[in-house]
Amino acid sequence: MVYLYTRFKMLKMARQSITFTEKNNKWLKAQVDSDEYTSKSELINSLIRQARGQEIKIDWIRTKLIKAEESGYTNRTKEEILARSKQMLNNK
To answer: Rounded mean pLDDT of 51-66?
Structure first.
């Protein structure tokens, strides 16, 4: 187990060994070389956070679709439904 000490809290971090294809490794290295990220680990953690955020949005949409299917019909137009859905998603 690895511990990272930041200004505000101590983070418990697990050390992993991951193998990448050459193409993916080159892309990761290019991101780090561009100074966008300080390490491949930082980049991978960022990608995982993004994926987790997308998963939350997908689950929210899935729940809304199930609820809508179970609720029956509406008089709203497709455009009204889409606009309201986007508004609710952006407020989450």
So the answer is: 92
In whole angstroms, how far apart are CA 14 and each of 2, 32, 39, 55? 6, 21, 16, 22
Average pLDDT of the residues of the chain? 87
- Token reading at 87: 């508004």
User: Which amino acid does the sequence have at 33?
Assistant: D
End-to-end CA, the chain: 34
- Full residue range of the structural domain in which residue 63 is found: 24-90
Q: Give, to the nearest 10 degrees, the angle between helix 40-71 and helix 22-33.
A: 110
Whether the model pTM is above 0.85: no
How far is residue 89's CA from residue 86's CA, in Å, rounded to a whole number? Answer: 5
17 in a domain, yes or no? no
